[in-house]
Amino acid sequence: MQINLSTVVLSLALVGASVAPAAAADKETRQMMADIRILQEQSQQLQNLLGALNESIKAVNVRIEEQTNSTRKSFADQKLVIDALTGDLRVVREKVDDSSVRVGSLSQELDALRQSVMSAAAAAAAAVPPPLGPDGEPVAGLTPPGDGTAAPVPTGAAAVGASPQKLFESARADYYAGQFDLAVLGFDAFLKTFPQAPQAPDAQVHIGHAYFQEGKYPQAIEAYDTLIRVYPKSSVVPDAYVRKGTALKSLGDAEKAREAFQFVIDNYPNTTGASIAQQRLLDLVPEPKR
């Protein structure tokens, strides 16, 4: 009986010893599962936060793109406005320049008419005979000074009385008719009478062209130099340089001709004169190697 009791006690002790580690392991398992759940929850929170951040970034990118498009459109609209204003300003400037030219031309027309009227009045006054007395003789004291004959009309009266446009057109007609000597005289008279007229640069360059057509190259070069010096901003200056270079080439001065052509190419690169100068430069004999 005693042996059986001891056996039971020993068995209970063994069972208790085996149950204790199992309970401890189960506790650790539960703790690990709890930690895993916490980590899963934190991971889910991080994923939710990342998702929210991605949505915020997308929203910001959309706003930036919209703002960029708006700014780009605004710049484009401003450019259109600026281009339109620039075009309008250019038109206004051209109209102002045209008006200035017309006013200058009208002023010279008026001056020419005034001088014509004064010349005609002076000629008419000189041609009026003195009053005669009953005996047919001039009344004493009323005879105009001089010998009583009518004063001749000045030979320049026709040129003075002519308008700038008519005087220029007359000289140009002589030029195109091949009357180069008359054309030079006409253009010279025009320049002496109306040196600041809008047609003045054209008149001066046509003097050079007339001499050039006659083969009078030194006189042509002098006329072109006068144009370049007196009217340096005229649109015919490139052509004057080209003609000057061609005249120099005809005189055998290839070096100065090359300088004239190169000057046009360097200073007036986008003109017809530059294209012609380039071709004339190629036609020159190459410089000897030194």
Q: Briefly note the structural class of the backbone.
A: mainly alpha
Radius of gyration: 52 Å
DSSP strand count:
0
Low-confidence stretches: 141-158
Estimate the mean pLDDT confidence: 79
Q: According to CATH, what is the class of one domain? A: Mainly Alpha
Shape: rod-shaped
Q: What percent of residues adopt helix (DSSP H or I)? A: over 70%
Per the CATH scheme, the topology name of one domain is Serine Threonine Protein Phosphatase 5, Tetratricopeptide repeat
Order of helices and strands: HHHHHHHHH
- CATH superfamily of one domain, please? Tetratricopeptide repeat domain
Strand residues, percent: under 5%
Number of helices: 9
Biggest β-sheet description: none
User: Roughly how many Å apart are the termini?
Assistant: 142 Å
- CATH architecture annotation of one domain: Alpha Horseshoe
What would you note in describing this structure?
- The protein has helices at 2-127, 157-161, 164-176, 180-193, 200-213, 217-230, 237-250, 254-267, 272-283.
- By secondary structure, it is an all-alpha fold.
- The longest helix is centred in the N-terminal third of the chain and has 126 residues, at 2-127.
- The chain is rod-shaped, with a radius of gyration of 52 Å.
- The chain starts with a helix and ends in a 7-residue tail after the last helix.
